[in-house]
């Protein structure tokens, strides 16, 4: 009897050691199952990954692993700017940062996905070639027509666990996605807020209501820049009524003031054939000069699929094999008579 009680206490103590202090959030170790019906998340530097894309949007399962090509300690996450994202935030496949998804023509990928992940209707494609990027490769966000979908594989996104309030209940599940949309990370956190709301709401309007639960004071912080000694100093700071100064406007002020360090090296725009376009240069937060220049890269939306019909009983013949290089981005076909 005593030994069984000691065993139970030992199990409880081991479980408590794996919880984030004061949160009830279970930390999972390397090799342990995650997602599915398992509440909690992988330890720092681990990611809940599945071997293949989940066929079920809900309750995706994975294992806590050290993702290949990912080192979040080397990544500077992009700052949160006033106005938020035009679409829902994205999480890169390494799980390092939550950021506004990159749009068509913007740089993506890089070491540990430091340059970000594309919006849901785009792929992060190699600058030159017919493939998706894999860290540490740098790519460009592109729209890809349906007949190219099998050419560009999407990276496996992490499996996330979380909760949302749905029809008056806390609905908790796991989801394999680079666009997780959870309001709460645990059932306890969700249920606490829900119970406080329901307790306050059930009182009759004429009856004395209990005081609303106190919320911790929120300190508004936002990203902004200012000119200091011929430099743009950019950082998170307390919000104020003024519209924050961002890098582009700050760098223009440096140029107008004649600061010698405000000019960036001249990089000529490369020529680009009709089947390609010029990507946007990438500048790191707080900097004036781009670290990734504008590049000529294929626009696969100009690529027509293989013809399914040729007049006069002709057959489609491949005359140019596309290789994803500007000028030869696409396969080109012509209709020829049978036997030619």
Explained architecture:
By secondary structure, this protein is of the alpha+beta class. It has helices at 2-17, 187-201, 247-256; strands at 27-28, 33-35, 41-42, 47-49, 61-65, 90-91, 98-99, 107-109, 123-126, 138-142, 159-166, 169-176, 221-227, 232-238, 276-278, 296-298, 315-320, 332-336. A three-stranded antiparallel β-sheet has the order 2-5-4, with no helix packed on it. The chain has a three-stranded antiparallel β-sheet with strand order 8-10-9, with no helix packed on it. Strand 11 (159-166) and strand 12 (169-176) form a beta hairpin. The N and C termini lie far apart (90 Å). InterPro entries: Growth_fac_rcpt_cys_sf (IPR009030), IGFBP-like (IPR000867), Insulin_GF-bd_Cys-rich_CS (IPR017891). This is IGFBP N-terminal domain-containing protein. It comes from Pangasianodon hypophthalmus (Striped catfish). Residues 66-144 form the IGFBP N-terminal domain.
Topology:
Elements: H1 2-17, E1 27-28, E2 33-35, E3 41-42, E4 47-49, E5 61-65, E6 90-91, E7 98-99, E8 107-109, E9 123-126, E10 138-142, E11 159-166, E12 169-176, H2 187-201, E13 221-227, E14 232-238, H3 247-256, E15 276-278, E16 296-298, E17 315-320, E18 332-336
Parallel strand pairs: 1-3
Antiparallel strand pairs: 2-5, 4-5, 6-7, 8-10, 9-10, 11-12, 13-14, 15-16, 17-18
